[in-house]
Amino acid sequence: MNNNILKNLSYGVYVVSTVDNGKPTGCIANSAMQVTHDTIAVSINHDNYTNKCIKDSKKFALSILGVDVSDKIIPVFGFTSGRDTEKFKDIAIKEIDGLDIIADSTGYIICDVINQMETDTHTIFLGKIVDGDLLNDQIPMTYAYYHNVKKGKSPKTAPTYIEENLQNNTKLAYKCIICGYIYEGDITKEPDSYVCPICKQPKTKFIKI
Q: 60 near 112, Cβ under 8 Å?
């Protein structure tokens, strides 16, 4: 199969937020869709802490990210775990219906979980829309924009993650072990202050490939 065909499917980029006994948490998702006029489906990996929290709380919110969203949002929500990180600690938020919304987003949709379906790796949550509003006049970010313009990578828990085959790459390159970002060239020539442009980890987190 040619996996490149999957890149032609259209996705957005969202922060899915929920709560764990009153503590806010969330993660990045790109597989979300409107099923009916008042129903949203979102896919969350079994390994994501957010998955367990949505199952327990029975509610979630989508913050729809725009192309001008702060560069710290995706690294925090896409490449750290809510099990040991207070993801909303330094993030501007709006609290709506007990859920934290990313203030620097195009808007939000709040849902109550009405059903769920399990796959081998992900839970698909079906949510009834209970609220939503526009927040900022930004162009919504597509997953293609995230990859092609921001040069972002998919975490291994993303539904669209595809392991890159680098065995035939004869160019010097280094890979971030946290998020998978590929640095083409000799990263050892970068200053010690260099950080991964995606997950903001230091160059010590890169391995030669």
A: no
Render pLDDT for 62-104 as a digit per residue (tens, 0 to 9).
999 999 888 888 888 988 888 888 899 889 999 999 999 999 9
The mean pLDDT value for 19-34 works out to 92
Rg (CA), the chain: 17
Domains of the chain, start order: 10-148 (2.30.110.10), 173-208 (2.20.28.10)
Distance of CA 146 to the CA centre of its chain: 11
Give the global pTM: 0.77
The closest of 162, 161, 146 to 68, measured between CA atoms, is: 146
Sorted by sequence, the CB contacts under 8 Å of residue 127 that are 6+ apart come out as 39, 40, 41, 42, 59, 60, 111, 112, 113, 114
